[in-house]
Amino acid sequence: MLAASSDFGPLATASIDNFRPLSGLDGCDKSRALRKTSSLPVAPETRSEDTTTLLPSATMNGKPLPLGAGKGQSKSDRPQPFSKRRKAKPLLQQCKEYALEHTWFIPFVILSIFLFLYAVNPTDSNPIHYFIFLSYPVPLAADASPETPITYAKGRRDFAFVVFYMVVLSFTREFIMQEILRPLALYNGITKKGKQYRFMEQMYTAIYFGILGPAGLWIMSRSPLWYFNIEAMYEGFPHKSLQAEFKFYYLFQGAYWAQQAIVIILGLEKPRKDFKELVCHHIVTLLMVGLSYKFHFCHMGLGVFITHDLSDFFFATSKTLHYIDHPLVGPYFCFFIGTWIYLRHYLNLRIIVSEFYEFKTVGPYVMDWANEQYKSPFSQVITTALMSILQGLNLFWLFLILRTAYRFLWLNSLGDERSDDEEESDGTEEQKLDEKVKGGVEGGAGPKVFLSREPFNGKSSAAQIRVDGLMKQRAI
């Protein structure tokens, strides 16, 4: 029972008779404590256990209380207090945040829409057909053998094919990196974000070129081009049509390099020290792919693709072994140097030299726009210039590779000369801030940190305290 006392303020003037239990609350074990926002004053020293034994009735000091003051009333009748809970986010905002966190989601939605539209009418008359499948099949002659492979000509619809597979590659790149390679990086003990992202990049590169490199060799083995037959690159020129697997491979490679150019433009990859050379390499590659496809030099382009794809595979796997500190990283790196020199320099120099000999002597050597015969002095200058620029970039990277090998053999240090040190770049700022905080705490010269308005001399990490005007937070 509550007794009237001066300690209870306004409740002291209320008569005991004015306090009657609310109906419907007799069986309650424990009533809800009154909120501070309630209109009834509460004794400052009253315990919650005491206040639950007797509650005000519908009248107090002769004044009726509002309906719904009892627990028996519905929640809709009670005066609702102010809620500090965060409102539910709209569906559009939730989708936006999910897409930003999972960058493969938007390409997946686009692909789903394309596939749904094609499933409505899965025939050649559906315009979506040109995005998914090859266009311009060449009809076979009436007396052709049943084993004669179908070839495909070239045309504007091939752009639709390239655009669609750019979306496919965007989805596969982001999905594989985030859902497969990130857990793999954590499994191998790679926790720093910079090193982790480099590991995912190189692993994805190894996966892609580990598939496309052997695919190029397989296509070459099914043609007179095997094995880098220089004369076969110019025989039968112009090559206006290609077999299905050859055309798919060439356009798919074009989609990959176009998608990689978008990655660089959007800044999805951290720039390396050789960023300018990398941009130049992408420009030259896109020009070579587009011009060789348009002007029928795809047989030469196949050889260039294979040499670069295989060397990129060995380079990416070498970097991956370095990130996980594998014991074979040293011998494998030496093996990679040998493959790089053979593929990117020996074989490519053979192709460049052929442009001064076989390019002129094998097949026609005259410009004929009407018959699409473009092997001429004009095209020779363009192809030689692009191949020479590409070879110059490869020599630049060979210099960096050999310098890395020198440091590994004589200084016992192995790292990528093209990129910053991932192990240091990710944690450098926090380490410097930790040192400043530690020095300030021990020497008394650092910034003062306050906890509950009192000076706090404990140790804090840079994740909670940003010094030198960046940000100050309480240390916990």
Automatic annotation (TrEMBL):
<feature type="transmembrane region" description="Helical">
    <location>
        <begin position="205"/>
        <end position="228"/>
    </location>
</feature>
<feature type="region of interest" description="Disordered">
    <location>
        <begin position="417"/>
        <end position="455"/>
    </location>
</feature>
<feature type="compositionally biased region" description="Basic and acidic residues">
    <location>
        <begin position="429"/>
        <end position="439"/>
    </location>
</feature>
<dbReference type="GO" id="GO:0046513">
    <property type="term" value="P:ceramide biosynthetic process"/>
</dbReference>
<feature type="transmembrane region" description="Helical">
    <location>
        <begin position="248"/>
        <end position="268"/>
    </location>
</feature>
<feature type="domain" description="TLC">
    <location>
        <begin position="194"/>
        <end position="410"/>
    </location>
</feature>
<dbReference type="GO" id="GO:0050291">
    <property type="term" value="F:sphingosine N-acyltransferase activity"/>
</dbReference>
<dbReference type="Pfam" id="PF03798">
    <property type="entry name" value="TRAM_LAG1_CLN8"/>
</dbReference>
<feature type="compositionally biased region" description="Acidic residues">
    <location>
        <begin position="418"/>
        <end position="428"/>
    </location>
</feature>
<feature type="transmembrane region" description="Helical">
    <location>
        <begin position="159"/>
        <end position="176"/>
    </location>
</feature>
<dbReference type="InterPro" id="IPR006634">
    <property type="entry name" value="TLC-dom"/>
</dbReference>
<comment type="similarity">
    <text>Belongs to the sphingosine N-acyltransferase family.</text>
</comment>
<keyword id="KW-0808">Transferase</keyword>
<dbReference type="GO" id="GO:0005789">
    <property type="term" value="C:endoplasmic reticulum membrane"/>
</dbReference>
<keyword id="KW-0325">Glycoprotein</keyword>
<feature type="transmembrane region" description="Helical">
    <location>
        <begin position="381"/>
        <end position="402"/>
    </location>
</feature>
<feature type="compositionally biased region" description="Polar residues">
    <location>
        <begin position="51"/>
        <end position="60"/>
    </location>
</feature>
<feature type="region of interest" description="Disordered">
    <location>
        <begin position="1"/>
        <end position="24"/>
    </location>
</feature>
<protein>
    <recommendedName>
        <fullName>TLC domain-containing protein</fullName>
    </recommendedName>
</protein>
<keyword id="KW-0256">Endoplasmic reticulum</keyword>
<keyword id="KW-0472">Membrane</keyword>
<keyword id="KW-0812">Transmembrane</keyword>
<feature type="transmembrane region" description="Helical">
    <location>
        <begin position="103"/>
        <end position="120"/>
    </location>
</feature>
<dbReference type="InterPro" id="IPR016439">
    <property type="entry name" value="Lag1/Lac1-like"/>
</dbReference>
<feature type="transmembrane region" description="Helical">
    <location>
        <begin position="326"/>
        <end position="343"/>
    </location>
</feature>
<feature type="transmembrane region" description="Helical">
    <location>
        <begin position="280"/>
        <end position="306"/>
    </location>
</feature>
<feature type="region of interest" description="Disordered">
    <location>
        <begin position="36"/>
        <end position="86"/>
    </location>
</feature>
<keyword id="KW-1133">Transmembrane helix</keyword>
